[in-house]
Amino acid sequence: MMTFSRRQSKTSRYVLEQMKIYKVLIIVDNIICRGRKMKTIKPLLLMNDDKLSGLEKRAVLNGANELLRIAGANGIAILDMGAWKDRTYLKSDNTLREYCSVDWYMQEGRRSSQKGDQINADVISHHLTFEPWRETKDHYDLMTITSDMYSRGTNFVIGLAHKGIGTLISTFRFRGLNDYSKYECIKTETMHELGHVFGLLPEYRTQDVEDSLGKHCTNLCIMRQGIKLPDDWVRMTNDRLIYGALCNDCRADLRNFFL
């Protein structure tokens, strides 16, 4: 997988230039990989709040790269935007401009929260889905935050994903783990949520599945549900390291998403 890094002082013009370069990569990829749907081959944009540690960032980036490797999606470019702020992110009255910084997304998640310090994940996910430039510059989003968050009907969530659009993940619930366990669990979390973005589990799948806050696998697989934090995710991560990330069914479904 190709990774473009950027310093936080860069602006969205940089991203647009990288995406122009990416269009050329798309043409080459389609010549090599005939029959692959254009709508699934598009860049993956990484963003994070400014409190994300280097260890957490490496876990997210490596998790994304590993899942794309398993998927065989060699045409997906990763654009690492960091704690992104467009140079026009502030209005003349010093308030945050819509859709122009990670800070604005976080602000909206806090403003709408009905649970104290927790972020409203549904609101941020909604804004990521309806970014004004999505129609002309289609992409996947992966936003990582360090605050705790919740979704409607839950006490908390560590991730919220939408197929073909993107995901919002939180590292908050892993903060008490040692560095090794935290890194590996966040890597598992990243792969799990991106798995949902890339179509896991598909509607046609009826065997070895359960409906638990969304459709999940029941095999020895990172796509199974983890309710108890961090214990379930530590267990899932240990299984990933021993047996591999995906069961045969989920691996096949993931690859089919990009065919």
Explain this structure.
The chain is built from seven helices and ten strands. It is α/β, with parallel strands linked by helices. It has a single domain (2-197), classed as Collagenase (Catalytic Domain) (3-Layer(aba) Sandwich). A six-stranded mixed beta sheet has the order 1-3-2-5-8-7, with helices on both faces. Strands 4-6 form a two-stranded parallel ribbon. Strands 9-10 form a two-stranded antiparallel ribbon. A hairpin with a 3-residue loop joins strand 7 (159-162) and strand 8 (166-170). Helix 2 (54-71) packs across helix 5 (179-197), helix 3 (102-111) packs across helix 4 and helix 5 (179-197) crosses helix 6. The longest helix has 21 residues, at 12-32. It is globular, with a radius of gyration of 18 Å. It starts with a strand and ends with a helix.
Q: Helix and strand layout, with pairings?
A:
Elements: E1 2-5, H1 12-32, E2 44-48, H2 54-71, E3 77-80, H3 102-111, E4 119-120, H4 121-129, E5 140-145, E6 149-150, E7 159-162, E8 166-170, H5 179-197, E9 209-211, E10 215-217, H6 231-243, H7 248-257
Parallel strand pairs: 1-3, 2-3, 2-5, 4-6, 5-8
Antiparallel strand pairs: 7-8, 9-10
Helix pairs in contact: 2-5, 3-4, 5-6
